[in-house]
Amino acid sequence: xxxxxxxEGRKISPQALKRSFWNWFFWNGCSQQAESMLGMAxxxxxxxxxxxxxxxxxxxxxxxxxxxxxxNTEAQVGSICNGIVCGLEESNAxxxxxxxxxxxxxxxxxxxxxxxxxxxxxxxxxxxxxxxxMTISQVAASWxxxxxxxxxxxxxxxxxxxxxxxxxxxxxxxxxQSMMASGKLDRLTTAMxxxxxxxxxxxxxxxxTCTIPFGIVGxxxxxxxxxxxxxxxxxxxxxxxxxxxxxxxxxxxFFVYWLYTRKxxxxxxxxGLILVIAVALTAVQYLTGYADVQAVAAAAAAAV
Length: 304
What we know:
Layout: H1 3-8, H2 14-27, H3 39-53, H4 57-67, H5 79-93, H6 99-139, H7 144-182, H8 184-207, E1 215-221, E2 228-235, H9 236-243, H10 247-261, H11 267-288, H12 290-303
Antiparallel strand pairs: 1-2
Helix pairs in contact: 2-3, 2-5, 3-4, 3-5, 5-6, 5-7, 6-7, 6-8
């Protein structure tokens, strides 16, 4: 240790911090297993910091050993844990912290960062991005949406993870506690959830199709030819859309949500049920002649 380091204390170099972040960003899931979950990946991410802070082999071995223990979080938002632990290791190297405190803080951070990450990133931001990219594929070229997603997702993930990593290192545990206590994080989470619900609602109205084959079919005289033709005199779907547009797709979406969340149906079982209902309704359409009349009406409208 140089005389400057003795007077100012140990400080993690910017290069070591960047290597630590990139190790976590690219390899956080490389060794996930039941025994320590993300523990090995966390130890690998901390290796550049430990090498930068400690001189002896024994100190480095002890530091690595405490960071390969059980650890789990949502990787993107969870990068704030790495930043906080880097700051604690720096304090420990300067005699202002203890290994026991570092291990306790790591365990305490698992719950909140996992919950926040899963709800904010996995449950909100990613679905919003997917919905936007799906819309781009529909209104533009079919390849445009996947290309936008392949660019925006890794770049956005990298920026978010790096900013949270820096926030954790600079603000430390106190900064995270103050942010959570101020309610800013809760307001941000609520805003993102509301935005996600709006996008999912628009996606439901645009992509979910549901009609019922109920109506009144009768014969009317065609004024141009003077012949009697079959037509739909009363269309239940048009009536429903008249006072509540897209009501049936909305009800179908709520029904699927109810089966999945309340009744604990598997996605495969739900898809099977929808297939059975679709086959039954389609059969009713053809047996009653409703489908034939609809096809004739659609062809006539297209010809006009």
